[in-house]
Structure formats: structure tokens, C-alpha cells
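Researcher: Checking consistency across runs. Here is Peroxidase again:
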Amino acid sequence: MASAPPSSSLLILLILAFAALVCESRLSADYYVKSCPRFNQIMQDTITNKQITSPTTAAGTLRVFFHDCFNDGCDASVLLSSTSSNSAERDAEINLSLPGDAFDLIVRAKTALEFACPNTVSCADILAVATRDLLTMLGGPHYTVYLGRKDSRISKSSLAESNLPRPTMPMSQLIDIFTKRGFTIQEMVALSGAHTVGFSHCKEFSFNIRNDTHYNPRFAQALQQACSGYPQNPTLSVFNDIMTPNKFDNLYFQNLPKGLGVLESDHSLYNDPRTRPFVELYAKDQNKFFQDFAKAMQKLSLYGIKTGRKGEIRRRCDAVN
């Protein structure tokens, strides 16, 4: 015996529910145009003020964004604080050096946006837009950020330790980490160009300076002197690009053949035959680097995002609702 067809009212409810789910899950560049009309202006004002007062904010925010996205997607899980029952990502050993200015920027932007349009803008969207806008402030390429992400309710330090790449990893392992997330070797090299700004802590490379013959000898000596007090002062760091450390350009790639890379992974990019052709390409052609970097960043910003009911819009970026 055939079952009775559902009533017309039930069909309507099902259609409306499905339509709402589809709409809720769709990302767009103007996602907040109606729900938070001042979104772009608030973001611009907050970012500009923070970067002017703390010029290292841009590079720091880029690093926080990368650490967030590569650990189970761009969902602001790295912004959550630990609780008595859970050790969050930001307390993982690999994340302890993430700069406070980046977290402060997100808090400022979230506070202003909650005042203007409560419970509307996700922390994940704030981090994605802040990263893009700060990069352009440093002279980097502009790319469209599609909005509508939700914030994760889960953040575990153990996942960060196992998911994030480290500068001491062999190139095969680094390539594997990227390709498992759908990124090509060329996209990995393009994203590595983010090292054209910012700095690295001495603890990430000082043990290797004397043993790695790929360093320019004078540069190695300068690094040893800069990091001589590292055991007593673990916060000591050096610029990734010693030529133009606060400008987003292709000098990072030009430095690598000269032995002026800071990290072991920097040297590996030039010395490995799988990645060297792209290093040479970007060293010669900044426009090509900018073009590929922008595409890779846009792709990264959409990796593993949470939409619809898979996440929430946190009222505070450091705690779940």
C-alpha cells in the first residue's frame, strides 16, 4: 500500500527549510551589505589604526590566519582560549609564538562590529578580511574575500601540533602537508612568499646555523650574533627578509639563491628540484608572484570553512557562545 503524500503545508515547510539552509551556506563578497552595512568601514578603520601604531601587526595576522586555516580550516578556532577542561590551539607549543598584536586586532574589530551589528559578523570572516587588507597595506596584491564563514566550536592543541608544518621538516613532508589539503607544489611555493614580511624566532633556526652550508657565510655570522642571547631571551627574532622586511615584494625569492634564507625550509625551497623552478620564476617576475599568491590566498581562505549550522557566530572571539 502506497504511503500518503505529505500535506502541502509540510511540503512548503520543507522547501523553506532547504532554501534557508542553502542561503545560509552561500558565501559572497557582499555578504554583510544588508545585515551590517558599515562592515567594510569598521574593518578598514580598525586595521589602519592598529597597523599604524603596531607595524608588525600585518605579518603577525598573516601568520595567525595561516595557522588557523591549516588546522581543520579557516574557522577562527585558533582564537579560542583554553578552558579548565580543554587545551586550545593557541596554547599548542607551535602556536605559543603567535604575536599578540594579531589577536588584539581581531578583538578590536569584533568589539566594534558587535556594537554596530550584534551577533552578525563571524570571527573567521574578520580574520580573513583583516589578513587581506593588511597585506595590501604592505604593498601586496588584492584578492576577493568571500564572506559567510561560521566560527568553530572546537579548538584542540593536540590537533595543531599534528597538522601544522614546521620549518625543520624535510621538503617531502612539507609538500605532503600541502597536497593533502589540495594545494599544488607551485601554490605552496607562492604561499611561502609570505616570508617576505615578518620575522622568525631564533629558536626556529639557531641550532642549524653552524651546520647548514646553504647559508651565506657572512649572513650566518650575523644570525649567530643576533641570536647569541637566545637561551636567556627566547623572544629574540630576526626579519625573514633582511632587505625589505616591511614591504610585500618578491625579494624573499631573490634572497634564497644568495643563501639569505633564515629558515631551513627557506633553503630547501631553492635546493629541492621540485620547488626551485618556482622560486626562480617568482624571483624574476614579481607580477607573476603576486598573481599566484593572490589566487593561492583566496583558495586558502576557503579551505575547510564552516557554514550553515556547522558553526556559530561567536559573541566573543576567544570563547564559544
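Researcher: Does this match what you'd expect to see?
Model: One thing to look at in this run: Residues 8-25 form the longest helix (18 residues).
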